[in-house]
Amino acid sequence: MSSASPEADVARKVSATEVERVPSHGQWDGAAIRSTSLEPQSKWESIKMYPKAIACFLSIPQWRQDYGYLYQGQYVVSANWQLAFTAASMIGLVVGGALTGVISQRFGQKICILGGHLITIGGVFLQWFSIGNMGMFFAGKLLTGIPLGIFVTSAPVYCSEVAPQPLRGAMVAAVNFSLVVGQLLGYGVMRETQTMEGPNAYRILFAVQWGFAAVGLAFLYFIPESPTRLIARGKIDAGRRSLSILYDASATHLEEMVERIQLNLASLEEGSAGSLKECFNKANRMRTAVAVSVFFIQACSGISWVLGYMGYFMQLGGLGGGQVFDITVGICGAMAVGNMVSWPLVDRMGRRGLILAGLLFCTVSMLLIAVLGCFPEKGRPVLLAQVAFMAVWGFMYQGSIGSVGYTLITEVPTSSLRNLTQSLGTIVNGLSNCIWSFSMPYMVNPDQANMKGKVAFIFFGILVVCDVFVFFYYPETKGRSFEEIDELYAMGVPPRKFSKTVLEPAVLRGKGEDA
């Protein structure tokens, strides 16, 4: 999400590419980079003076002019409104994820996805016509945050349930690719529009979301509901029709697939669709913790800094706007490639192996970035080395926890709790990103902690703890059916030993017979 980042709209994804350079009486890393002619007087004024650290669309001068006010010679946007806009997206993400977990259990995932597209259209409508109206723009941000929570919750689960087992890992891992592509499209649109005169300099960024919604609605009619969800709700015939659309199979084979799904659901109490309380009972609490930890690790591994602040970081280091834009696009390109590399590797190295290896590379990258930050006097060479390790981090992040994490979070929960667990993960993702969104400006702004590259020490420490947790508690689910994963957990097999444990077919047959 991301990362998933909590911001669904394209404008929120684009890193800052503009910092006004004016004569100054203060220097940071040899660059006279300032937002006003005076030193900030408070934390709130600091946020006002460094709007690029809050939301990327604030880097568009026309947007600041339409929504802001003159402050010592330039247009700025109230810090309270900036924080409100960030909060709106976070709240929307959490609400969307929570609602999807409940609604999809009862009505299926298609209705949730349909609702997400319709809400997107409404939210963008409010943003488009909100010129200068802060309340309307806030409402638009809130509405466009809800669909992100819906899509992040429903899409991975849907893919895991309709994909053939040999393709399940790659197909679910590819879900995050759409977020990366969205970021790249956002950069491209921003490059072409930010110098326009008038509201279209930023409104076109909003309108791009209408295009995504239109494409999604056009394809939604042809997408069948998840057979697993239908059969779980007792709609056997509908589930069979859905399977016939998804698979070119004979009637006999279709019946076998229906029986397998029923067997997978047979361990549940008849008529039960799972409950939130069950996610935390003795049998499921560790599975819930592992699944939810995926989104926590994504949010706390450094994505909020690398993706949201790398442009600002490079500008404070003295790089020009054009260089910053090109480097930012290059790093996002590396992330996209990393995501694609994970597709074949997820079933060769496995989920656990790929996530652990990627996180170890991310950990080392953050350490090197932080250590290099201790030598600011070296100037540009150190900055470029840090940027290079950011690219390594981005590639490895998207090649592991950023993409494969989506696969694992859909495979670890039991079938009856998959939607609810994904919903809990989305909520944790939103809350975690909320913390970083509000704390990051105070870490990086020159008048506050001014940590520069040393902020990576924080993420390094967090990643070390995450590496240990992944090693002991992340299972290898490669090549396992959902029934086998359930049985391994029921047998109490340590997660790190899943790959070495052989299940006899009789064990699973016996489970079905007992049910």
TrEMBL record:
Transmembrane regions: 79-99, 111-131, 137-158, 170-190, 202-223, 290-312, 324-346, 353-375, 387-409, 421-443, 455-474
UniProt keywords, alphabetically: Membrane, Transmembrane, Transmembrane helix, Transport
SUPFAM superfamilies: MFS general substrate transporter (SSF103473)
Superkingdom of source: Eukaryota
InterPro entries on file: MFS_dom, MFS_sugar_transport-like, MFS_Sugar_Transporters, MFS_trans_sf, Sugar/inositol_transpt, Sugar_transporter_CS
Main location group: membrane
Membrane topology, as annotated: Multi-pass membrane protein
Transport among keywords: yes
UniProt subcellular location: Membrane
Region ranges (Disordered): 1-25
Domain Major facilitator superfamily (MFS) profile: 1-478
Family, similarity comment: Belongs to the major facilitator superfamily. Sugar transporter (TC 2.A.1.1) family.
Identification of the protein by name: General substrate transporter
Annotated source species: Aspergillus keveii
